[in-house]
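I am still learning, so can you show me any protein sequence you like together with the matching C-alpha coordinates, please?
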Amino acid sequence: MTWEETIRFIRTQPEYKYLVDKAYFEEDLILNVQRFMQSDEFRETLKLLNQYQPNAKTILDIGSGNGISAVALALEGYTVVSIEPDSSDTVGAGAIRKLKTHYNLDNLEVYEAFAEELQLPNDSFDIVYARQCMHHAYDLGKFVAEASRVTKKNGLFITIRDHVIFNKNDKEWFLENHPLQKFYGGENAFKPTEYKNAMENAGLEIKKEMKYYDSVINYFPSTKEEITNIFQLSKSKAITHLNNKIGILSKISFLQKLYLKKIGLNKKNFYDENKIPGRMYSYLCIKK
Protein backbone atom coordinates (compact mmCIF):
# COMPACT_ATOMS: atom_id res chain seq x y z
CA MET A 1 0.00 0.00 0.00
CA THR A 2 1.00 3.62 -0.49
CA TRP A 3 0.76 6.05 2.44
CA GLU A 4 -2.45 7.48 1.00
CA GLU A 5 -3.96 4.00 0.56
CA THR A 6 -2.98 3.13 4.12
CA ILE A 7 -4.74 6.17 5.58
CA ARG A 8 -7.85 5.65 3.48
CA PHE A 9 -7.94 2.01 4.64
CA ILE A 10 -7.52 2.60 8.38
CA ARG A 11 -10.31 5.18 8.30
CA THR A 12 -12.66 2.28 7.54
CA GLN A 13 -11.36 0.07 10.37
CA PRO A 14 -12.91 0.54 13.85
CA GLU A 15 -9.73 -0.65 15.62
CA TYR A 16 -7.84 2.34 14.18
CA LYS A 17 -10.39 4.97 15.15
CA TYR A 18 -8.27 6.25 18.06
CA LEU A 19 -5.17 6.55 15.86
CA VAL A 20 -7.08 8.33 13.08
CA ASP A 21 -8.46 10.76 15.63
CA LYS A 22 -5.26 11.48 17.55
CA ALA A 23 -2.99 11.61 14.50
CA TYR A 24 -5.30 14.02 12.62
CA PHE A 25 -5.99 11.54 9.81
CA GLU A 26 -9.71 12.29 9.56
CA GLU A 27 -11.14 12.77 6.07
CA ASP A 28 -12.48 16.12 7.28
CA LEU A 29 -9.38 18.27 6.73
CA ILE A 30 -10.83 21.34 8.41
CA LEU A 31 -11.62 19.36 11.55
CA ASN A 32 -8.01 18.13 11.62
CA VAL A 33 -6.71 21.71 11.54
CA GLN A 34 -9.11 22.88 14.24
CA ARG A 35 -8.18 20.05 16.57
CA PHE A 36 -4.45 20.43 15.94
CA MET A 37 -4.59 24.14 16.75
CA GLN A 38 -6.27 23.34 20.06
CA SER A 39 -3.74 20.64 20.99
CA ASP A 40 -1.22 20.85 23.83
CA GLU A 41 1.47 20.03 21.29
CA PHE A 42 0.77 23.04 19.08
CA ARG A 43 0.31 25.44 22.00
CA GLU A 44 3.65 24.34 23.46
CA THR A 45 5.31 24.65 20.05
CA LEU A 46 4.09 28.24 19.70
CA LYS A 47 5.63 29.04 23.09
CA LEU A 48 9.00 27.77 21.87
CA LEU A 49 8.76 29.71 18.60
CA ASN A 50 7.99 32.90 20.53
CA GLN A 51 10.77 32.20 23.01
CA TYR A 52 13.52 31.52 20.46
CA GLN A 53 12.32 33.70 17.53
CA PRO A 54 9.92 36.30 18.91
CA ASN A 55 10.20 38.53 15.82
CA ALA A 56 9.91 35.78 13.22
CA LYS A 57 7.67 36.36 10.23
CA THR A 58 8.60 33.60 7.76
CA ILE A 59 8.42 29.84 8.28
CA LEU A 60 9.31 26.91 6.07
CA ASP A 61 7.21 23.89 7.03
CA ILE A 62 8.99 20.75 5.80
CA GLY A 63 7.00 17.56 5.31
CA SER A 64 3.62 19.20 5.83
CA GLY A 65 1.56 16.05 5.20
CA ASN A 66 -2.13 16.91 5.06
CA GLY A 67 -1.41 20.52 5.98
CA ILE A 68 -2.39 20.79 9.64
CA SER A 69 0.86 22.47 10.70
CA ALA A 70 1.34 24.68 7.64
CA VAL A 71 -2.23 25.97 7.81
CA ALA A 72 -2.15 26.40 11.58
CA LEU A 73 1.04 28.47 11.37
CA ALA A 74 -0.42 30.56 8.54
CA LEU A 75 -3.56 31.18 10.60
CA GLU A 76 -1.28 32.35 13.42
CA GLY A 77 -0.04 35.08 11.08
CA TYR A 78 3.23 33.67 9.80
CA THR A 79 4.12 33.73 6.11
CA VAL A 80 4.48 30.02 5.41
CA VAL A 81 6.04 27.97 2.63
CA SER A 82 4.96 24.33 2.76
CA ILE A 83 7.10 21.51 1.37
CA GLU A 84 5.41 18.13 0.83
CA PRO A 85 6.49 15.46 -1.68
CA ASP A 86 3.17 13.57 -1.69
CA SER A 87 0.67 15.10 -4.13
CA SER A 88 -2.48 13.39 -2.80
CA ASP A 89 -5.68 15.18 -1.86
CA THR A 90 -6.02 13.40 1.48
CA VAL A 91 -2.51 13.24 3.00
CA GLY A 92 -0.39 15.47 0.75
CA ALA A 93 -0.02 18.71 -1.17
CA GLY A 94 -3.50 18.42 -2.66
CA ALA A 95 -4.99 18.46 0.83
CA ILE A 96 -2.94 21.52 1.76
CA ARG A 97 -4.16 23.38 -1.33
CA LYS A 98 -7.77 22.56 -0.40
CA LEU A 99 -7.21 24.04 3.04
CA LYS A 100 -5.44 27.08 1.59
CA THR A 101 -8.50 27.75 -0.55
CA HIS A 102 -10.95 27.12 2.29
CA TYR A 103 -9.19 29.56 4.63
CA ASN A 104 -8.31 31.99 1.80
CA LEU A 105 -4.67 32.05 2.86
CA ASP A 106 -2.57 34.37 0.73
CA ASN A 107 0.31 33.89 3.19
CA LEU A 108 0.74 30.18 2.35
CA GLU A 109 2.60 28.71 -0.62
CA VAL A 110 2.72 24.97 -1.35
CA TYR A 111 5.52 23.14 -3.18
CA GLU A 112 5.88 19.46 -3.95
CA ALA A 113 9.45 18.44 -3.16
CA PHE A 114 11.63 16.35 -0.87
CA ALA A 115 13.48 18.09 1.94
CA GLU A 116 16.78 16.94 0.45
CA GLU A 117 15.98 18.79 -2.79
CA LEU A 118 14.74 22.24 -1.77
CA GLN A 119 14.68 24.64 -4.70
CA LEU A 120 14.69 27.70 -2.46
CA PRO A 121 17.19 30.58 -1.97
CA ASN A 122 19.78 30.59 0.79
CA ASP A 123 18.94 32.32 4.08
CA SER A 124 15.23 32.67 3.30
CA PHE A 125 13.40 31.84 6.54
CA ASP A 126 13.35 33.01 10.13
CA ILE A 127 12.18 29.53 11.17
CA VAL A 128 12.45 26.13 9.52
CA TYR A 129 9.97 23.75 11.13
CA ALA A 130 9.89 19.98 10.56
CA ARG A 131 7.13 17.97 12.25
CA GLN A 132 7.38 14.18 12.30
CA CYS A 133 9.37 14.05 9.07
CA MET A 134 13.13 14.14 9.72
CA HIS A 135 13.13 10.44 10.61
CA HIS A 136 11.78 9.74 7.10
CA ALA A 137 14.82 11.36 5.44
CA TYR A 138 16.36 9.26 2.69
CA ASP A 139 19.61 11.16 3.33
CA LEU A 140 19.64 12.60 6.85
CA GLY A 141 22.77 14.70 6.33
CA LYS A 142 21.41 16.28 3.16
CA PHE A 143 17.98 16.82 4.74
CA VAL A 144 19.45 18.83 7.60
CA ALA A 145 22.01 20.59 5.40
CA GLU A 146 19.26 21.86 3.11
CA ALA A 147 17.16 22.96 6.07
CA SER A 148 20.15 24.86 7.46
CA ARG A 149 20.97 26.40 4.08
CA VAL A 150 17.58 28.09 3.78
CA THR A 151 17.51 29.23 7.42
CA LYS A 152 18.61 32.81 8.04
CA LYS A 153 21.68 33.41 10.17
CA ASN A 154 20.62 33.24 13.83
CA GLY A 155 17.35 31.72 12.64
CA LEU A 156 15.68 28.70 14.23
CA PHE A 157 15.58 25.12 12.98
CA ILE A 158 13.03 23.20 15.04
CA THR A 159 12.23 19.51 14.63
CA ILE A 160 9.16 18.04 16.27
CA ARG A 161 8.37 14.45 17.27
CA ASP A 162 11.04 12.41 15.51
CA HIS A 163 11.41 8.74 16.31
CA VAL A 164 14.59 7.78 18.13
CA ILE A 165 16.25 4.36 18.39
CA PHE A 166 19.39 3.35 20.31
CA ASN A 167 20.58 0.24 18.47
CA LYS A 168 19.61 -2.33 15.82
CA ASN A 169 17.42 -4.39 18.15
CA ASP A 170 15.68 -1.26 19.39
CA LYS A 171 14.88 -0.29 15.80
CA GLU A 172 13.46 -3.74 15.05
CA TRP A 173 11.31 -3.49 18.18
CA PHE A 174 10.03 -0.07 17.08
CA LEU A 175 9.15 -1.27 13.56
CA GLU A 176 7.40 -4.36 14.91
CA ASN A 177 5.26 -2.19 17.18
CA HIS A 178 4.41 0.61 14.77
CA PRO A 179 0.70 0.21 13.93
CA LEU A 180 1.03 1.16 10.24
CA GLN A 181 4.42 -0.25 9.27
CA LYS A 182 2.85 -3.54 8.18
CA PHE A 183 0.73 -1.70 5.60
CA TYR A 184 3.12 0.66 3.87
CA GLY A 185 6.57 -0.18 5.23
CA GLY A 186 7.79 3.40 5.25
CA GLU A 187 8.74 3.96 8.89
CA ASN A 188 12.26 4.76 10.02
CA ALA A 189 14.21 6.17 12.94
CA PHE A 190 17.74 7.35 13.77
CA LYS A 191 19.93 7.43 16.84
CA PRO A 192 20.16 10.73 18.77
CA THR A 193 23.84 10.95 17.84
CA GLU A 194 22.94 10.70 14.15
CA TYR A 195 20.43 13.54 14.41
CA LYS A 196 22.83 15.72 16.39
CA ASN A 197 25.84 15.03 14.17
CA ALA A 198 23.80 15.98 11.10
CA MET A 199 22.77 19.25 12.76
CA GLU A 200 26.26 20.17 13.90
CA ASN A 201 27.75 19.29 10.51
CA ALA A 202 25.20 21.63 8.91
CA GLY A 203 26.38 24.59 10.98
CA LEU A 204 23.57 24.44 13.53
CA GLU A 205 24.03 24.98 17.25
CA ILE A 206 21.79 22.67 19.27
CA LYS A 207 20.10 24.75 21.95
CA LYS A 208 17.73 22.12 23.26
CA GLU A 209 17.25 18.39 22.96
CA MET A 210 13.84 17.42 24.31
CA LYS A 211 13.64 13.75 25.14
CA TYR A 212 10.38 11.84 25.28
CA TYR A 213 9.27 12.77 28.79
CA ASP A 214 10.75 16.27 28.66
CA SER A 215 7.81 17.83 26.83
CA VAL A 216 4.14 17.26 26.05
CA ILE A 217 5.16 17.92 22.45
CA ASN A 218 6.70 14.45 22.35
CA TYR A 219 4.28 12.40 24.41
CA PHE A 220 1.10 14.03 23.09
CA PRO A 221 -1.77 12.92 22.89
CA SER A 222 -1.09 12.08 26.54
CA THR A 223 -1.32 15.18 28.73
CA LYS A 224 0.97 16.28 31.54
CA GLU A 225 -1.81 15.48 33.98
CA GLU A 226 -2.29 11.98 32.58
CA ILE A 227 1.42 11.22 32.73
CA THR A 228 1.57 12.38 36.36
CA ASN A 229 -1.64 10.59 37.32
CA ILE A 230 -0.43 7.27 35.92
CA PHE A 231 2.54 7.32 38.29
CA GLN A 232 0.43 8.40 41.25
CA LEU A 233 -2.08 5.63 40.53
CA SER A 234 0.67 3.02 40.41
CA LYS A 235 2.10 4.34 43.66
CA SER A 236 -1.34 4.26 45.30
CA LYS A 237 -1.90 0.65 44.20
CA ALA A 238 1.49 -0.32 45.64
CA ILE A 239 0.68 1.28 49.02
CA THR A 240 -2.69 -0.50 49.04
CA HIS A 241 -0.89 -3.79 48.43
CA LEU A 242 1.50 -2.98 51.29
CA ASN A 243 -1.48 -2.24 53.54
CA ASN A 244 -2.93 -5.67 52.76
CA LYS A 245 0.36 -7.21 53.88
CA ILE A 246 1.23 -5.25 57.04
CA GLY A 247 -1.93 -3.34 57.93
CA ILE A 248 -1.78 0.02 59.69
CA LEU A 249 2.03 0.03 59.62
CA SER A 250 1.76 0.86 55.91
CA LYS A 251 0.83 4.42 56.95
CA ILE A 252 4.40 5.02 58.10
CA SER A 253 6.19 7.10 55.46
CA PHE A 254 9.56 5.44 56.05
CA LEU A 255 8.11 1.97 55.47
CA GLN A 256 6.35 3.18 52.34
CA LYS A 257 9.63 4.47 50.93
CA LEU A 258 11.40 1.22 51.73
CA TYR A 259 8.67 -0.80 50.05
CA LEU A 260 8.56 1.39 46.93
CA LYS A 261 12.35 1.14 46.70
CA LYS A 262 12.18 -2.63 47.07
CA ILE A 263 9.72 -3.02 44.18
CA GLY A 264 11.60 -0.44 42.09
CA LEU A 265 8.74 2.02 41.84
CA ASN A 266 10.18 5.52 41.53
CA LYS A 267 9.84 8.29 39.01
CA LYS A 268 13.20 7.57 37.40
CA ASN A 269 12.27 3.96 36.66
CA PHE A 270 8.63 4.67 35.92
CA TYR A 271 9.36 7.37 33.35
CA ASP A 272 11.85 5.21 31.46
CA GLU A 273 11.75 6.06 27.77
CA ASN A 274 13.49 2.76 27.00
CA LYS A 275 10.09 1.16 27.59
CA ILE A 276 8.59 3.21 24.72
CA PRO A 277 9.23 1.78 21.22
CA GLY A 278 10.40 4.52 18.87
CA ARG A 279 10.08 7.21 21.53
CA MET A 280 10.00 10.74 20.09
CA TYR A 281 12.49 13.58 20.52
CA SER A 282 12.41 17.23 19.44
CA TYR A 283 15.32 19.58 18.75
CA LEU A 284 15.82 23.33 18.68
CA CYS A 285 18.84 24.70 16.84
CA ILE A 286 20.16 28.13 15.92
CA LYS A 287 22.04 28.68 12.67
CA LYS A 288 25.48 30.00 13.47
